[in-house]
Amino acid sequence: MKQFVLVAGYEKPPKQLPFRAYCENRVRQHLVANKAKEDLVFQIFDVGKGEVVIRRFTYPGGRQTETVAAVRSFERITRAHYDGNAFKDEQDGVMSVLEVYAAVQAIGRAAPGTLMELSFLSHGYAGGPVLVDSTDDGQVERADSAGVRQLILDLGDRRDPDDHDPRVKDFREVNMRPAEFAAFRAAYHPDGFNWSWGCAFNHQVNEILHKMEHHPDYRSAGLPDTKILLFDNLTRANVANLSLMLGTRFPDHRKVELPFGELKLFFRRHILDSYSHALAVASGRITFGGLIGTFSEPDGAPRPLMRVNGRFTRHFTFYRNYFGFGFDPERRGYGAYDPAFT
Asked: Is there a contact between 131 and 19 (Cβ–Cβ < 8 Å)?
Protein backbone atom coordinates (compact mmCIF):
# COMPACT_ATOMS: atom_id res chain seq x y z
CA MET A 1 0.00 0.00 0.00
CA LYS A 2 1.12 3.52 -0.83
CA GLN A 3 -0.37 6.61 0.76
CA PHE A 4 -0.66 10.23 -0.35
CA VAL A 5 -1.73 13.33 1.57
CA LEU A 6 -2.88 16.18 -0.69
CA VAL A 7 -3.87 19.57 0.72
CA ALA A 8 -5.99 22.06 -1.24
CA GLY A 9 -5.72 25.62 0.04
CA TYR A 10 -8.66 28.02 0.11
CA GLU A 11 -9.32 29.62 -3.28
CA LYS A 12 -9.09 33.12 -1.85
CA PRO A 13 -9.97 36.01 -4.20
CA PRO A 14 -8.71 37.70 -6.26
CA LYS A 15 -6.27 35.00 -7.48
CA GLN A 16 -8.70 32.11 -7.33
CA LEU A 17 -7.16 28.85 -8.50
CA PRO A 18 -8.98 25.47 -8.42
CA PHE A 19 -6.75 23.82 -5.83
CA ARG A 20 -9.20 20.98 -5.11
CA ALA A 21 -9.31 20.20 -8.83
CA TYR A 22 -5.50 20.15 -8.83
CA CYS A 23 -5.62 17.54 -6.05
CA GLU A 24 -8.02 15.40 -8.08
CA ASN A 25 -5.75 15.78 -11.12
CA ARG A 26 -2.80 14.65 -9.01
CA VAL A 27 -4.78 11.56 -7.98
CA ARG A 28 -5.47 10.83 -11.64
CA GLN A 29 -1.78 11.27 -12.49
CA HIS A 30 -0.75 8.70 -9.88
CA LEU A 31 -3.45 6.26 -10.96
CA VAL A 32 -2.27 6.36 -14.58
CA ALA A 33 1.32 5.76 -13.43
CA ASN A 34 0.31 2.82 -11.21
CA LYS A 35 1.21 0.08 -13.71
CA ALA A 36 1.94 -2.39 -10.89
CA LYS A 37 -1.64 -1.97 -9.61
CA GLU A 38 -0.56 -1.41 -6.03
CA ASP A 39 -3.20 -0.35 -3.53
CA LEU A 40 -3.24 3.45 -3.24
CA VAL A 41 -4.81 5.63 -0.54
CA PHE A 42 -5.30 9.37 -1.01
CA GLN A 43 -6.28 11.71 1.82
CA ILE A 44 -7.48 15.01 0.39
CA PHE A 45 -7.73 17.97 2.77
CA ASP A 46 -9.96 20.62 1.19
CA VAL A 47 -9.46 23.64 3.42
CA GLY A 48 -12.02 25.83 1.65
CA LYS A 49 -14.83 23.27 1.74
CA GLY A 50 -13.81 22.12 5.20
CA GLU A 51 -13.76 18.45 4.36
CA VAL A 52 -11.33 15.55 4.49
CA VAL A 53 -11.96 12.85 1.89
CA ILE A 54 -10.23 9.48 1.67
CA ARG A 55 -10.11 7.82 -1.77
CA ARG A 56 -8.92 4.24 -1.60
CA PHE A 57 -8.04 2.28 -4.76
CA THR A 58 -7.59 -1.48 -4.70
CA TYR A 59 -7.12 -3.99 -7.49
CA PRO A 60 -8.83 -7.31 -6.68
CA GLY A 61 -8.34 -9.63 -9.63
CA GLY A 62 -6.41 -6.85 -11.38
CA ARG A 63 -9.48 -4.63 -11.69
CA GLN A 64 -9.51 -1.13 -10.16
CA THR A 65 -12.03 -0.57 -7.36
CA GLU A 66 -12.55 2.70 -5.50
CA THR A 67 -14.10 3.47 -2.14
CA VAL A 68 -14.65 7.03 -0.96
CA ALA A 69 -15.21 8.23 2.59
CA ALA A 70 -15.57 11.69 4.11
CA VAL A 71 -13.95 11.30 7.50
CA ARG A 72 -14.31 14.74 9.06
CA SER A 73 -15.96 18.07 8.36
CA PHE A 74 -14.83 21.54 9.36
CA GLU A 75 -16.38 24.94 8.71
CA ARG A 76 -16.69 25.87 5.08
CA ILE A 77 -14.75 29.09 4.52
CA THR A 78 -16.63 32.13 3.23
CA ARG A 79 -15.86 35.83 3.00
CA ALA A 80 -17.49 36.13 6.44
CA HIS A 81 -14.32 34.58 7.90
CA TYR A 82 -12.39 37.65 6.75
CA ASP A 83 -12.32 41.28 7.77
CA GLY A 84 -11.42 42.73 4.40
CA ASN A 85 -8.43 40.59 3.41
CA ALA A 86 -7.51 39.68 6.99
CA PHE A 87 -8.50 36.27 8.37
CA LYS A 88 -10.29 36.83 11.66
CA ASP A 89 -9.05 35.46 14.98
CA GLU A 90 -10.78 32.79 17.10
CA GLN A 91 -12.10 30.62 14.26
CA ASP A 92 -11.33 27.22 15.73
CA GLY A 93 -13.81 25.41 13.48
CA VAL A 94 -11.74 26.08 10.35
CA MET A 95 -9.30 23.41 9.17
CA SER A 96 -5.68 23.96 10.16
CA VAL A 97 -2.34 22.58 9.04
CA LEU A 98 -2.28 20.83 12.42
CA GLU A 99 -4.89 18.39 11.08
CA VAL A 100 -2.56 17.64 8.17
CA TYR A 101 0.36 16.96 10.49
CA ALA A 102 -1.88 14.73 12.62
CA ALA A 103 -2.81 12.69 9.54
CA VAL A 104 0.86 12.15 8.67
CA GLN A 105 1.59 11.17 12.27
CA ALA A 106 -1.31 8.69 12.21
CA ILE A 107 0.24 7.05 9.14
CA GLY A 108 3.57 6.92 10.96
CA ARG A 109 1.98 5.08 13.86
CA ALA A 110 -0.39 2.74 11.98
CA ALA A 111 1.41 2.12 8.68
CA PRO A 112 4.97 3.47 8.85
CA GLY A 113 6.96 3.73 5.66
CA THR A 114 3.93 4.05 3.36
CA LEU A 115 3.62 7.82 2.77
CA MET A 116 4.80 8.57 -0.75
CA GLU A 117 3.83 12.22 -1.00
CA LEU A 118 2.71 15.14 1.12
CA SER A 119 1.62 17.92 -1.23
CA PHE A 120 0.34 21.42 -0.55
CA LEU A 121 -1.52 22.72 -3.60
CA SER A 122 -2.18 26.31 -2.65
CA HIS A 123 -0.96 29.84 -2.84
CA GLY A 124 2.35 30.29 -1.10
CA TYR A 125 5.37 32.40 -0.29
CA ALA A 126 8.86 31.65 0.97
CA GLY A 127 7.49 31.16 4.49
CA GLY A 128 5.23 28.34 3.37
CA PRO A 129 1.92 27.34 1.80
CA VAL A 130 -1.04 29.66 2.32
CA LEU A 131 -4.07 27.64 3.40
CA VAL A 132 -6.36 30.45 4.63
CA ASP A 133 -3.91 33.40 4.76
CA SER A 134 -4.08 33.73 8.53
CA THR A 135 -1.63 35.76 10.62
CA ASP A 136 1.07 34.68 13.04
CA ASP A 137 1.24 37.90 15.03
CA GLY A 138 2.77 36.40 18.18
CA GLN A 139 -0.16 37.31 20.40
CA VAL A 140 -3.51 35.81 21.33
CA GLU A 141 -6.58 37.03 23.19
CA ARG A 142 -8.79 34.57 25.05
CA ALA A 143 -11.26 34.62 27.95
CA ASP A 144 -10.09 33.11 31.24
CA SER A 145 -12.21 30.89 33.50
CA ALA A 146 -13.98 33.96 34.86
CA GLY A 147 -14.84 35.22 31.40
CA VAL A 148 -12.30 38.04 31.52
CA ARG A 149 -10.43 38.46 28.27
CA GLN A 150 -6.66 38.19 28.60
CA LEU A 151 -4.10 39.27 25.99
CA ILE A 152 -0.92 37.20 25.74
CA LEU A 153 1.68 39.31 23.97
CA ASP A 154 4.60 36.91 23.64
CA LEU A 155 4.06 33.34 22.48
CA GLY A 156 7.75 32.76 21.77
CA ASP A 157 8.13 29.78 19.44
CA ARG A 158 4.64 28.48 20.20
CA ARG A 159 2.10 28.48 17.39
CA ASP A 160 -0.48 31.23 17.46
CA PRO A 161 -3.80 29.41 18.09
CA ASP A 162 -5.49 31.88 15.71
CA ASP A 163 -3.10 30.82 12.92
CA HIS A 164 -4.07 28.00 10.54
CA ASP A 165 -1.23 28.16 8.01
CA PRO A 166 2.05 26.17 7.99
CA ARG A 167 5.04 27.84 9.65
CA VAL A 168 8.75 27.09 9.85
CA LYS A 169 8.50 26.77 13.63
CA ASP A 170 5.93 23.97 13.45
CA PHE A 171 8.55 21.25 13.85
CA ARG A 172 10.16 22.70 16.99
CA GLU A 173 9.58 20.70 20.15
CA VAL A 174 7.24 23.28 21.69
CA ASN A 175 4.80 22.66 18.80
CA MET A 176 5.48 19.02 17.86
CA ARG A 177 6.37 16.81 20.80
CA PRO A 178 9.14 14.19 20.34
CA ALA A 179 6.70 11.27 19.96
CA GLU A 180 4.69 13.24 17.38
CA PHE A 181 7.84 14.22 15.53
CA ALA A 182 9.01 10.60 15.46
CA ALA A 183 5.64 9.47 14.08
CA PHE A 184 5.75 12.24 11.47
CA ARG A 185 9.15 11.06 10.23
CA ALA A 186 8.22 7.39 10.42
CA ALA A 187 5.32 7.87 8.00
CA TYR A 188 7.50 8.35 4.93
CA HIS A 189 8.37 5.65 2.43
CA PRO A 190 12.12 5.58 1.58
CA ASP A 191 11.17 7.09 -1.79
CA GLY A 192 8.65 9.51 -0.29
CA PHE A 193 8.82 13.27 -0.74
CA ASN A 194 7.03 16.55 -0.05
CA TRP A 195 5.86 19.15 -2.53
CA SER A 196 4.92 22.79 -1.94
CA TRP A 197 3.35 23.84 -5.23
CA GLY A 198 2.70 27.51 -4.53
CA CYS A 199 4.87 30.57 -5.02
CA ALA A 200 8.08 31.25 -3.09
CA PHE A 201 8.26 34.84 -4.23
CA ASN A 202 10.19 37.41 -2.24
CA HIS A 203 10.46 40.81 -3.91
CA GLN A 204 13.80 41.69 -2.36
CA VAL A 205 15.43 38.34 -3.15
CA ASN A 206 14.14 38.46 -6.72
CA GLU A 207 15.36 42.02 -7.27
CA ILE A 208 18.79 41.43 -5.74
CA LEU A 209 19.20 38.19 -7.71
CA HIS A 210 18.23 40.02 -10.91
CA LYS A 211 20.67 42.86 -10.30
CA MET A 212 23.47 40.45 -9.39
CA GLU A 213 22.82 38.26 -12.45
CA HIS A 214 23.06 41.32 -14.72
CA HIS A 215 26.15 42.75 -13.02
CA PRO A 216 29.03 43.02 -15.53
CA ASP A 217 31.38 41.10 -13.21
CA TYR A 218 28.96 38.26 -12.40
CA ARG A 219 29.47 34.81 -13.88
CA SER A 220 26.81 32.10 -13.90
CA ALA A 221 29.40 29.57 -12.69
CA GLY A 222 32.84 29.60 -11.12
CA LEU A 223 32.84 33.10 -9.61
CA PRO A 224 35.13 33.05 -6.52
CA ASP A 225 33.74 34.08 -3.15
CA THR A 226 36.41 36.77 -2.89
CA LYS A 227 35.24 38.64 -5.99
CA ILE A 228 33.97 42.11 -4.97
CA LEU A 229 30.79 43.31 -6.68
CA LEU A 230 29.95 47.02 -6.56
CA PHE A 231 26.26 47.94 -6.85
CA ASP A 232 24.91 51.41 -7.55
CA ASN A 233 21.36 50.33 -8.41
CA LEU A 234 20.08 48.81 -5.16
CA THR A 235 16.99 50.31 -3.56
CA ARG A 236 16.75 51.22 0.10
CA ALA A 237 14.50 48.18 0.58
CA ASN A 238 17.10 45.94 -1.08
CA VAL A 239 19.82 47.22 1.24
CA ALA A 240 17.58 46.93 4.31
CA ASN A 241 17.03 43.26 3.54
CA LEU A 242 20.75 42.69 2.98
CA SER A 243 21.45 44.37 6.33
CA LEU A 244 18.82 42.27 8.09
CA MET A 245 20.15 38.94 6.77
CA LEU A 246 23.87 39.72 6.98
CA GLY A 247 23.99 41.91 10.08
CA THR A 248 25.98 44.50 8.13
CA ARG A 249 25.32 48.22 7.89
CA PHE A 250 25.58 49.91 4.51
CA PRO A 251 25.83 53.72 4.89
CA ASP A 252 24.95 54.52 1.26
CA HIS A 253 22.46 52.34 -0.64
CA ARG A 254 23.78 53.84 -3.91
CA LYS A 255 27.23 52.38 -3.34
CA VAL A 256 27.27 48.87 -1.91
CA GLU A 257 30.36 46.69 -2.17
CA LEU A 258 30.01 43.01 -1.32
CA PRO A 259 32.20 39.96 -1.80
CA PHE A 260 30.34 37.33 -3.81
CA GLY A 261 30.63 35.00 -0.82
CA GLU A 262 28.59 37.45 1.28
CA LEU A 263 25.91 37.58 -1.40
CA LYS A 264 25.79 33.78 -1.38
CA LEU A 265 25.42 33.87 2.40
CA PHE A 266 22.47 36.27 2.01
CA PHE A 267 20.64 33.87 -0.31
CA ARG A 268 21.65 30.83 1.75
CA ARG A 269 20.06 32.33 4.86
CA HIS A 270 16.83 32.94 2.96
CA ILE A 271 16.87 29.28 1.91
CA LEU A 272 17.43 28.16 5.51
CA ASP A 273 14.53 30.38 6.66
CA SER A 274 12.10 28.84 4.15
CA TYR A 275 9.29 26.40 4.93
CA SER A 276 10.42 24.02 2.17
CA HIS A 277 13.79 23.66 3.90
CA ALA A 278 12.16 23.21 7.32
CA LEU A 279 9.81 20.52 5.98
CA ALA A 280 12.70 18.72 4.27
CA VAL A 281 14.71 18.65 7.50
CA ALA A 282 11.74 17.63 9.66
CA SER A 283 10.67 14.78 7.39
CA GLY A 284 14.16 13.75 6.36
CA ARG A 285 12.88 13.69 2.78
CA ILE A 286 13.38 15.85 -0.29
CA THR A 287 10.89 18.71 -0.57
CA PHE A 288 10.12 20.10 -4.00
CA GLY A 289 9.25 23.78 -3.76
CA GLY A 290 9.71 27.09 -5.47
CA LEU A 291 13.21 28.55 -5.19
CA ILE A 292 13.22 31.81 -3.23
CA GLY A 293 12.37 34.66 -5.59
CA THR A 294 10.23 32.62 -8.02
CA PHE A 295 6.49 32.19 -8.45
CA SER A 296 4.19 29.44 -9.68
CA GLU A 297 1.31 29.36 -12.16
CA PRO A 298 -1.09 26.85 -13.77
CA ASP A 299 0.77 24.58 -16.18
CA GLY A 300 -1.82 24.78 -19.00
CA ALA A 301 -2.23 21.01 -19.29
CA PRO A 302 -5.64 19.41 -20.06
CA ARG A 303 -5.68 18.19 -16.43
CA PRO A 304 -3.80 21.16 -14.99
CA LEU A 305 -1.43 21.25 -12.08
CA MET A 306 1.17 23.95 -11.38
CA ARG A 307 4.68 24.88 -12.48
CA VAL A 308 7.22 27.61 -11.80
CA ASN A 309 7.17 30.44 -14.32
CA GLY A 310 9.85 29.76 -16.93
CA ARG A 311 11.26 33.29 -16.99
CA PHE A 312 13.41 32.53 -13.94
CA THR A 313 16.05 30.54 -15.85
CA ARG A 314 18.91 32.71 -14.53
CA HIS A 315 17.70 32.11 -10.98
CA PHE A 316 17.57 28.36 -11.63
CA THR A 317 21.15 28.45 -12.93
CA PHE A 318 22.40 30.38 -9.89
CA TYR A 319 20.80 27.99 -7.40
CA ARG A 320 22.06 24.95 -9.32
CA ASN A 321 25.65 26.10 -9.89
CA TYR A 322 26.31 27.80 -6.56
CA PHE A 323 24.18 25.78 -4.13
CA GLY A 324 23.96 22.43 -5.88
CA PHE A 325 20.17 22.45 -6.19
CA GLY A 326 18.50 19.74 -8.21
CA PHE A 327 15.00 20.06 -9.60
CA ASP A 328 11.76 18.12 -9.55
CA PRO A 329 11.60 14.99 -11.75
CA GLU A 330 8.53 16.30 -13.61
CA ARG A 331 10.49 19.28 -14.97
CA ARG A 332 8.15 21.86 -13.48
CA GLY A 333 10.93 24.16 -12.24
CA TYR A 334 10.64 23.39 -8.53
CA GLY A 335 13.87 23.17 -6.57
CA ALA A 336 14.74 19.99 -4.66
CA TYR A 337 15.31 21.08 -1.05
CA ASP A 338 17.66 18.51 0.42
CA PRO A 339 17.41 17.91 4.20
CA ALA A 340 21.24 17.83 4.29
CA PHE A 341 21.54 21.42 3.01
CA THR A 342 23.29 23.67 5.54
From this structure: no
3-state helix, strand, coil in the chain (%, to 5): 30, 25, 45
Average pLDDT, integer, range 38-55: 98
Delimiting residues of CATH 3.40.50 domain(s) in the chain: 2-134+165-200+274-337
Query: Rounded to the nearest 5 degrees, what angle is found at the Cα of 134, between the Cα atoms of 282 and 267?
Result: 50
- Mean of the pLDDT values across residues 198-220? 98
Mean pLDDT in residue range 104-116: 98
Tell me the CA distances in angstroms from 21 to 9, 77, 228, 265, one per residue in order: 11, 17, 49, 39
Q: Indicate the residue type of 329.
A: P
Residue 200, Cα to own-chain centre: how many angstroms? 8
Would the pTM of this model clear 0.85, i.e. be above it? Answer: yes
Range list of β-strands (E), 86-213:
86-87, 115-121, 123-125, 128-130, 140-143, 149-152, 188-196
Q: What is the CATH number of domain 2-134+165-200+274-337?
A: 3.40.50
Q: pLDDT tens across 122-181, in order?
A: 999 999 999 999 999 877 877 666 666 667 667 889 999 999 999 999 999 999 999 999
Q: Tens of pLDDT along 193-202?
A: 999 999 999 9
Secondary structure (DSSP) of 187-233: TEEEEEEEEE-S-B--HHHHHHHHHHHTSTT--SS---TT-EEEES-
The total number of residues shown for the chain amounts to 342
| Omega of the bond leading into 112 within 30 degrees of 0 (cis) | no
CA distance linking residue 41 with residue 58, whole number of Å: 9
